[in-house]
Amino acid sequence: MGCTEVAAIGLATSTAYNALFGNYPVHLGLGINKSVPLPDTEKVEKLMIRVDRNVFKNACGVAIPKTNGQRGIKLAAALGIFTNLNKNATLKKQQYLNIFDQINAPILERANGLVGKVEIGEADIGEKITDIDISAELIYLKDETETIAKTRICGAHDNIVLIQINDRKIYEQSTDQKAENEEENLPENIAGIIKIIEAIDAKEKEELRKTIIINKQLTKEGRGKQYGIGIVKALENLIQNGMLSNDLMTNIKLETASGVEARMGGAPKPAMSTSGSGNMGITATVPIIVTAKWLKKGEDRLLKSILLSHIVTRIISNYTGDLSALCGCFNKSAIGAAAGLTYLLGGKEREINNAINAAASNMTGVICDGAKYSCTLKAMTAAGVAMESALMSVNGIKIPPNGIVDEKPKDTMKNIGMISYSMAQTDMTIVKILQNLELTLENN
Description:
CATH superfamily of the largest domain: 2-methylcitrate dehydratase PrpD
Shape: globular
Number of helices: 15
Distance between the termini: 30 Å
CATH class of the largest domain: Mainly Alpha
Strand order of the largest sheet: 2-1-3-4-5-6
Strand content: 5-15%
CATH topology of the largest domain: 2-methylcitrate dehydratase PrpD
Order of helices and strands: HEHHHEEEEEHHHHHHHHHHH
Number of domains: 2
């Protein structure tokens, strides 16, 4: 729930505070305590947060759920310690990113009062390609004794690699070990992916239905209320006034915008993410969901198309890194959506290959300058290009090998990864700009 990076920061501080009372994530098997008291803000001496440059970039400007549009890393960190990791003892690891669901008005007021005790350590803006890396250090007077709780999340947004109380390490995992949700064996050609999606069973289909249910609930929220800066309302008015046609393409953009604007605006609804990103999850699936309904495609074809989109998006993300200087909606999930849409429209291996190359040739290189309201514009544009690429491919258009486009889509995707890793300097520049902006806003 909420932008993945602010949720992960909340998870880091929540884990630190809960560890003081013997309450640990269920999947670690260290014990749970549902009776963890809410923190006494007078006993919080300091809360220190350190993040890598891309978590900083995506967390500093996006609205936090259930805060009436409030933003900021410090508030996300403060809110985290007011959540009980095991409020629902059946939680799976992935569901810990929904902890902001516990926020209410009294907690928000107390967390805002705590923000002055939160410090942000220097963001890692070095030249190395950064992985997801979040550290929290809480100094708390427990039983009148100064106690230090430390946690670290690394490699994935919910991959806890350290829990420490004072000098005692309660849990530690090597940061060289791949996060659990990174362990994959995905094919690198479309023929192999088609074999996977066409062989899914009833259980797998049920999981894919959750994508549709969750993301449709989010888009409905975005259509029913105004979040962010009102892009969805503006689109609706343009359709009503006849400035935009009420056709399939416009509806793809409108529904995608609805989901992303709600999420960036702090809507109290979760998104079904893909490759660690809710916005990418929306962009990878909503265009397919809208198209299937518009064209009256059967559920079986819809579910397989969604899975194809998820897999292609994941493969590109493996090449580029989960977070980078490249916008994930443009450079990952929209390419996945183009593949999924092509399959939905009846395309075979050749057409899907062509759609991936068409989308890559059109969108690669759009930068990520942090999660914020205007991500809505990027996502709706990316969704439109995904559909255009699918339509071009099923109508016989093939992008010849040139530029970053290779004959084989897997090599095109590898080229996108090479571009991502070459843009470290761009990423550092973006972070410096954001830091300067944050400083200006604080001074004003």
